[in-house]
Design a protein that fits this description.
The chain is of the alpha+beta class. The chain contains four helices and 14 strands.
Length: about 200
Amino acid sequence: MKLICIGRNYAQHIEELQNERPDEPVVFLKPDSAILLKQHPFVIPEFSSDIHHEIELVVKISKVGKYIEPKFAHKYYEELTVGIDFTARDLQQRLKDKGLPWEKAKAFDGSAVIGDFISKKVFSSVESLNFELRKNGEAVQKGNSSLMLWTIDELISHVSQYFTLKIGDLIFTGTPAGVAAVKPNDILEGYLQDNKLFRINVK
């Protein structure tokens, strides 16, 4: 299983981090060891003092594909959820400043929260899905898939030019504005439309 992550897919998030708007999707990977196991807390790692939450829509690939055209991309997934791409922002900035890869800041153990999946048939359209992250009961990140710079289908097509997509692969589609640090004892809950799909404790 691959965890394929997309960066800089929401304009307001690009602005809040003062990043350059990309000409094509920013792609990076997480290993399967990054998946936070169900019923486990997220433990803040010792190597960072600034771990940020980034809630995202997550798509599960349902058939093998390579060089997928955008018009056929909808055939390659049946389920969605929300998840968190935890990011060691301080470490990421140090790595970026040196022109080095981000993996240590993005792909560490437990850095990927994956909620319960829902059939896309439940929704009238995946082009306008509301999702949000609540921290200690307060909504801190809100997004809608209509605000993506690249749609789900465009992302599937783009990624498949570089990586063969296999059954069970996950695509994290980017985070909206509102990223912020987590602290011990925070409770994080992820919602897709009105469905709560995960709840985790921070330690």
